[in-house]
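Ticket opened by: R.M.
Priority: normal
Category: complex prediction / small molecule

The reporter submitted a protein together with pyridoxal-5'-phosphate and asked that the result be attached to this ticket for the collaborator who will pick it up next week. Submitted input follows.
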Amino acid sequence: MSKLVSLIHCAGKLARNMGRLVTGRPLYIPELTAMTLEEDDLRLVDQLLREPGRWQRGEPVSQFQEEFGRWNGSRFAYAFMGGRVALTACIRALGLQAGDEVVIPGYTCVVVRNAFAFEGIRIVYADIELDTYGLDYQDLVRKTGKDTKAILLHHLYGLVARDTARIVEFAASRGIKVIEDCAHATGATLDRRRVGNFGDLAFYSFEISKVITTFSGGMAVTNDPVLAGRLAAVQGEMALPSPERIERLLLNVKYHHLALKHRLKWLLADLAFVRYKKAILLSTVQEEMEGAKPAWYEQTMPAPLARLGLNQLKKIDALNGRRTAAADRWGQWADAHGFGRPVVIEGSRPVFLRYPVLVAQEMKQDQRWAEKLDIVLGEWFVSQLHPVPGRIEGCPNAEIAVARCINFPTLLR
Ligand SMILES: *Cc1c(COP(=O)(O)O)cnc(C)c1O
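Result attached by the on-call engineer:
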């Protein structure tokens, strides 16, 4: 977008809101994303930007790892530059080799596929079920073969996967390892234990749209001391981002807050775009969509992002409480429109990062009906390997979810 176009766009929105101010109607401030950065995080980032001499320190990172592990009920935690990088660490910790096979859901992010593909691992896709969007147990069993060394089990939208316990038991009976993808579900519990403590290893994401955010970051956890030793070794082999990259990451925190969260974002978003344009980073770059590994991929989390993570961690329970309360509103919406609610399995407490509902296909294709709700619907899983277009064979439920699953934001004003 050229500067002129963005300024005109900005003026248009401003005029529209001025009209609303004058006539006493509510301002138009759609929830672009239910993102968790707040004023105090921004003050911290300004302080961090003034202290580049401290960016290479180790203590904030150890502290974040320890506090996250303690909060999560996991004995060991290791921080990386992304959930996808934490997944790479899990794969290496398990000693998976080129030619080994893994079964993953046929409804996931391309970066999950990539983490395995980068290690030369053969990928088999199992279908999901449409209650909790977790792996479909029967299809998983069907697709598990003699070369299967690991299963990736996910907890999508913050719901606990329906067959978590059964899948972990099945894997153990075959000597197969389980990695839990908890990117959406940080804090969700099953039988009072947080997800991520059921498989052998798990990873979490602190990307901008997740439960808490460091703009970009992730954590790998385990309760097994041997696997923990290997995670530590993998972390030790990775580098910290350069000071230039760290500065850019911190500027992205500022930009994304102005664009998505600031209470004057309807005015500031476009101005911020003009100002930070050269620094803006995407969470998944074109290279990754094409299956290539970016140069910055193998990196661990630097001190400033760990400091931000520590600040976010203080708020996580309150954030998840708000999400759970909002989920009720969308549940009532689903009831009123004759759509099913997502299933909360017995003994589980989801965190409802988003509230997924299976609607009629036309309602997903043409979302104008959602405008009067004053929210922006999630554009999640536009394809089975989000966001890369294309179809994965043999996963009919995943195709239904791509066609019909919409998701509502759960952090409302
Ligand atoms: C976001 C996400 C990831 C990857 O996490 P990053 O921190 O973005 O690398 C993995 N799995 C799922 C389901 C996700 O939504």
